[in-house]
Amino acid sequence: MTATPGASDGAAVTGTVVQRQQKPPANVEELRADIAQTRAELGETVQALAARADVKARLHESADEAKARVREKLHDAAIEARLAASEAPQRAQQLAVRAGRAVRNNPMPLAVAAAAVGLLVLFAGWRRRR
CA-CA distance, 46 to 40, in Å (whole number)? Predict the structure, then answer.
C-alpha cells in the first residue's frame, strides 16, 4: 500500500486501511507489542467482516427486531382497546343524555321518524297480505 502525501501524524489513510509510517521498533519487546496490537486489530476486523457476511444471522436478527416491534404495537393497541372499552359506557350515557335533550328541545324530527317507521310497517303488512 502506498502512503498519502501530507500525512502529519505519521499515519497515512488509503481507503479504510490506516498505514503506520513509524520507524522500526528498537527492541524485541516493542516488536512483540506491535505484533500483538496488529493481531488484535486484525481480529476485530475479521470479526466485523464475518458478522457482515453472515446473512442468515443478520436475517434472524432483523426478524427478531420486527417481531419485537409487532409485539410492542400489539401491546399498545391492547392498552388503547381497554381504555376505549372502559370509556364506552360513559360515552354512551353522554350520547343518550344529549339525544334526550335534543328530542325535548325539538320533538318534531322524532315524531316524523316514528310516523315514517309506522307507515313502513303498515305498508309491509299490507304487501304480505296481498
Answer: 10
